[in-house]
Amino acid sequence: MELTTIWFFIVGVLLIGYFVLDGFDFGVGMSLPFLGRDNTDRRVIINTIGPVWDLNETWLIVAGASLFAAFPEWYATMFSGFYLALLVILVALILRGVSFEYRHLGKGQRWTRWFDQFIFWGSVVPPLLWGVAFANLAQGVPIVPMDNGGWIYEGTLLTLLNPYGLLGGLTMLLLTFTHGLVFISLKTAGDIRDRARAMAKGVGLVTIVAGAGFLIWTVLQHLDSPTLWVIVLCAIVAAVSLIGAWVANAVGREGWAFTGNATAIVFALLAIFMSMFPYLMHSSVDPAYSMSIEGAASSPRTLELMTWVAVFTLPLVLAYQAWTYWIFRKRLTRESIPVDAH
């Protein structure tokens, strides 16, 4: 397998890791107005991700840096074409991160309510727009090659807001919401745990319906793809995992439910990446204008150097993250929140 193909899948793994890990962070943030009956409840909910949310977001930074280094043409075309959507995502992530750090300063209920709103909307907007973006990458976007090399995106933000793209955004939003609710039930005890499980049952059913529709639509759009059998296999695994997660949550097996949701996210995104392969961006203007992996990749020397760096550093990152989750594995309760916490 060529280094260009290897790095296509490495970038994919990094992005999938981001959506699995930061995905439940988003879901936890979305749950605040629904599960947080008072400030103590909201503190418990936020504390479930308190030690890990910023670590989870580093996966996006590493994925973006790897994409820039391995496929500069892909990076340039996607970030220039999707710049408005990506800007909105960036602002939402900043507001969300700032809110985690500042809401506890205790300057009054109005202050706290404002930052709770920022956490909620900062958790809703990114998965919604990420889902729209990745759905459009699977479907194809209006890109054309330039005379001096590279590609240019000829659409607008409204071009991305097509029915398939919006369904992809809704599906990602629901997946992360369900993922977060199950994580809360996994990390808490008592009434919050019970209410999170109950909500995950209802939201999970809607997620199954939306996910099934999106995966079927994805398969139907790629019936002539050379990777059709892989796309179908990934779609089936994602669907079975999502249904299994719902069943596990219904019977109180939060660990299995969390694993099932994570698996569903992994294989749903893998289906999208395989629908793109062997291209990075399909052109909806003319298939001949599509961006190939080889045509957008960096030099072989650059990819070789990056491969050696990844071989030595990725295991260390995974080990550190696993250790962090192990250290903070204890369940949280209302009693674990200090009386003077804000």
Provide structural commentary.
It is a single chain. The protein is mostly helical and 342 residues long. It has one domain: Formate dehydrogenase/DMSO reductase fold, CATH 1.20.1630. 76% of the residues lie in helices and 3% in strands. The chain contains 13 helices and 4 strands. The protein has helices spanning 3-35, 39-47, 53-70, 72-81, 83-102, 109-139, 157-160, 163-187, 191-221, 228-250, 254-276, 293-296, 300-327; strands at residues 143-145, 151-153, 279-281, 291-292. It has a two-stranded antiparallel ribbon with strand order 1-2. A two-stranded antiparallel sheet has the order 3-4. Strand 1 and strand 2 form a beta hairpin. Helix 1 (3-35) packs antiparallel against helix 3 (53-70) and helix 5 (83-102) packs antiparallel against helix 6. The termini are far apart. The model has no long low-confidence stretch (mean pLDDT 90).
CATH fold naming: Formate dehydrogenase/DMSO reductase fold
Biggest beta-sheet profile: 2 strands, antiparallel
> How many strands appear in the DSSP assignment?
4
**How do the helices and strands follow one another from N- to C-terminus?**
HHHHHHEEHHHHHEEHH
Strand order of the largest sheet: 1-2
Q: Indicate the CATH architecture.
A: Up-down Bundle
Overall average pLDDT = 90
Net shape:
globular
Number of helices: 13
> Can you tell me the number of structural domains?
1
Would you state the CATH class?
Mainly Alpha
The level of helicity is: over 70%
Class inferred from helices and paired strands: mainly alpha
- The gyration radius over C-alpha positions equals 20 Å
Query: Stretches where pLDDT falls below 50 for ≥5 residues?
Result: none
Task: Indicate the proportion of strand residues.
Answer: under 5%
N-to-C CA distance? 54 Å
